[in-house]
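Let's practice the habit of predicting before peeking. Look at the sequence and jot down your guess about where helices and strands might fall. Then scroll down.
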Amino acid sequence: MEGHENNGFVGDSPSIPGQFRWSKTIENGTAVHSNGSADRRNSGSGDSVVTQTVLSSSTPSLDNGETEGAKERDQWGKGIEFLMSCIAMSVGLGNVWRFPFIALQNGGGAFVIPYIIVLLLVGKPVYYMEMIIGQFSSRGSVKVYDCAPAMRGVGFGQLFSVTSLITYYSSLMALIGRYMYESFKSPLPWANCRPEWGTECVDATATQLVSTEGNGTDVPKRISSSELYFKRVVLKEIDGIDDGIGLPDWQLTLFLCLSWSIVLLILIKGVRSAGKVSYFLALFPYVVMGILLVRACTLPGAIDGIVYFLKPQWDKILDPKVWYAAVTQCFFSLSICFGNIIMYSSYNKFRHNVHRDATIVTTIDTFTSLLAGCTIFGILGHLAHVVGSKDVGSVVKPGAGLAFISYSEAIAKFDVVPQAFSVLFFLMLFVLGIGSNVAMTSCVMTVIRDQFPKVKNGHAATVIALCGVGLGSIYVTPGGQYILTLVDHFGASFIALVLAIAELITIGWIYGVDRLCKDVEFMLGIRPNLYWRLCWKWITPLLMAAILIYNLISLEPLTYQGYVYPTIAYDFGWSIAAFGLLQLPIWGTYAILKQDGKSWTEKLTNAFRPSKNWGPIDANPNQEYKKFINED
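Done guessing? Here is the structure:
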């Protein structure tokens, strides 16, 4: 890339793919002689460090030291931009409103133990693996399956899953944007009841406990104004979708357009522009979270809320449901096996230290979940204190309700400038959501530009944004949350697990862990240790398979707040799942038919072997890589 330093060093210093100017040591050690020999020794991390020399190729290159293929593909301006973008992608809405509730449901502080174990056995190995394969090949989430062309359907299936996610993720951004705008009003619009809500409504500012269940007498259940505001004013939610979903809400549609406009501006020049914004997207939420945590700790009852969140319920630690929750939370929180990590790392310089970055991102993601949990439950502890409840769990709503109902109600009870803290909270959520949405949109853009290199970043981003607004408008209708739940279950959650297992089998077994380790050795100069090899080949695929089996065994008809969908809705959902999963046999058959070979057996065999152009995308390291593999 023009403007990048061309110094050829390895490690923290950037190096340009396709250029090997001199003998060098991959890690601390002396320079190696030009005979290409490798000297293995142990590194502090437990990996074998390989010191090797790669001689300059005689292949002609451009004036700036890059081959033509490299010049056409974008790269991060700096390595830190890749790290920040990964943090912005992985640390998202799920860390703030899903992790605290899931942890509370599954043993509180005891949930952290299985979560960290799962992080080490599933999250971190897969994150590192996807970074390796993306950076090594400089290919997006579909073309990366040149390593096993018959499995390219995994990439297309994941692309479909990410596209499904994009369509409704932006609608969540619209909800957050609406709340952020309303937070400037005094008093907060959800703080007090409206006449049309009847006598069942209780002001969010009231110092009494709101019961959402009847007490068996003639006394009706009481509902907080924050809940009624969310459902009746913002969502305008209907009781079912048997008669249709209604028309889009014009205010939410405006915020939907706003969220997509921001994503479009960030991606107008691809990763070059996204990288510049990544600093803000990654770091700003921590500033707000720190402010909110400090404020929470100064409130009466906050410590009780934090203790309630972290207190271990040891009787749940052996419950398989807890481990299932840990795996799914880790899986979706880190955004593994969706193609986003492969896509981001494909824009790295060839010898960027992804081992370090994978460790940093997975650690920060877990830390953020715990920090967000303490912040949220500190505020909710204060809410319980104000309403006179000793049970913090009685004021907690699941999922998005944690942000839009429980937390909103807690802020409404603040004595000092509740508007300021409300604006900060929803601004933090908005920034977190933008970071994740940028990554998912980039994933789709990369697939488009890999297939059609002449398409410009701005054009691809514009088309995706327009489609996003059009499809996203479905979710801002009165029946939008019903459709969102349906698409999330069938279009993202279910098929994502199946495709994740297919990806792990493809890279760990078909392409092979041994070949992957050789790629790491060539690219980074380290040989992955036993921990990585065992996880990639055995532990992680088996754990994911167990989760899928458990999911199928415990499968129940999908409902939304007790509402049973009509048959046509279930048919639509299973059609979405089938379309995503059918990408596997469709593209597998296509790959076999396109392979060279005199017999069907030969075609089938070749379809599961790396394609002829597999390897580093630049000509010079590609030639050296093939020599490296052949000599090995």
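How did you do? The radius of gyration is 26 Å.
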